[in-house]
Input
Amino acid sequence: MSSTLSSSARLSRIKEKVTTKAGWFGGYDYSWLCLPTMPFLRSYHTRSPPFYALDADMPLILAAASGLQHALAMLAGLITPPIIFASALNLDSQTSSYMISASLIGSGILSLVQMSRIRLFGGHYLGTGLISVVVGTSFSALSTANAIFDAMYRDGTCSSVIAQDGTVTRSPCPDAYGKVLGTSLICSFLEIFLSFLPHRVLKRLFPPMITGTVVLMIGASLVGDSGAPNWAGGANDCQSRPTSGIFQLCPTIFAPRPLPWGSPEFIGLGFLSFLSIILTELFGSPFLKNISVIVGLAVGCIVAGATGYIDGSSITSAPAITFLWVHTFKISVYPPAILPMLAVYVSLAMEAIGDITASAEVSRVEVQGEEFDSRIQGGILSDGIGGFFSALFTVTPLSIFAQNNGVIAITRCANRAAGRWCCFFLILFGVLGKISGAFLAIPNPVLGGVTTFLFASVAVSGLRVLSLVSFTRRDRFVLAAALSFGFADLLQPEVFTHLFDGVNNPNSGLEGLFNSITIVLSTPFLAAGLIGVILNLVLPQEREERIVEAVSEELDLEEQKKVPASSEDSRV
Output
């Protein structure tokens, strides 16, 4: 009887939502959301809308508008990795546009799981139940995959063409992408295992000092490896400015308006996109501020199109409708990549802890106690399972993506209805193949100007985490040692490349081990994170540090006793 009453009440609520003006629009101040702001006016600091909690009743139009903001805020981060992967492997435009579509669709599907918070056995959960912890292509996987691709071209797994003047041009190598997917798939079980460790163990292994260092190195290395080179014309072989071959000019000699790498026209086009982001932050409405990166891309593309820099062939060749598995890759395991990918999944677990904490804060839910610990556990578990399924979706690891915390902080909307709309828009953008073709047509300087800002934002997130650390002498020592390796890799990328050149005729197994070690030591965030974790565990804590940690654990235990385990269904 009660189930019948609840069903009828639910139907009545849905009917009211769909058929009434209040259900569609509510009492929200849409002018605040859409009108530009003048930073020197008094009203700039006084206007603010109501806060919509996780399960609060929300008007349909507002939920859709907020979901669109979240989707647009994620777009640049989602399309950048597949574009960079495709460029590194010289893949054709049809395959490249499919990789963008698969990334968008996979993100939409796995984000639904992450924000659902499904109860499992023994008090464990799948997902965090937070809207801002959506899923996107991991930048740590991007940095590591580039190092793995370099190793594949060096050891002959992928072929290269050497011109008469000695210029080396990489041949297309889609199998390399399949090897990264296969290796990622088997390594994802490590993060699944880590999700079942007690939260205090994870905090001991990966304190904020380590997670902040890793995130800082990820952002900084991506600025140097991808953002800045693309800003100057391209991150492919044209940046060496060869005197022959198709990469004499950027992006290639077949582009509509090819120019030498570093030409002032390229620098100016990228700076226009960069400046558009700054102006949007200064004068834009809250809606535009949340998608300032997309505004930068749009302005840059408009000017690039008007001046003849855009090649529309990728849009023409892209299908109108697409989905997962329209293109497939031969999945296999690349043994030298196993150790680096295991390290990637450890770093993803590190990032997840900090991202979930930040997301819980802006969503106004507890950041201590049993419920919060279960969100950490559920988020890391969903992250690991997402890494497994993302490989099946032909996408590199899709992991927690907390940049949407800024959308919640500005719009004051942490509602899961908006999150579901966000997933809908992401899947829609991916299914519409022409959209992916349009993203692929973005000129390198425009993409570089925007992604340099995006990757620098990642580095700033790492600095923010480090700023919360109360440094002791021991902490400063650990951080200095970790950054020694990180900055060495960053400033001299080939410093560890020739480490094992003196070993004569190693067997295949030993050569694979050498390649694995070289990849780890040549990737800034992996080297810095590894040294930081080892020293943090080995070096004894100072007396004051042990006292603070003991008091912190006692407070955590007392907080857990005070906060009863509340079901997700009862939260408003």
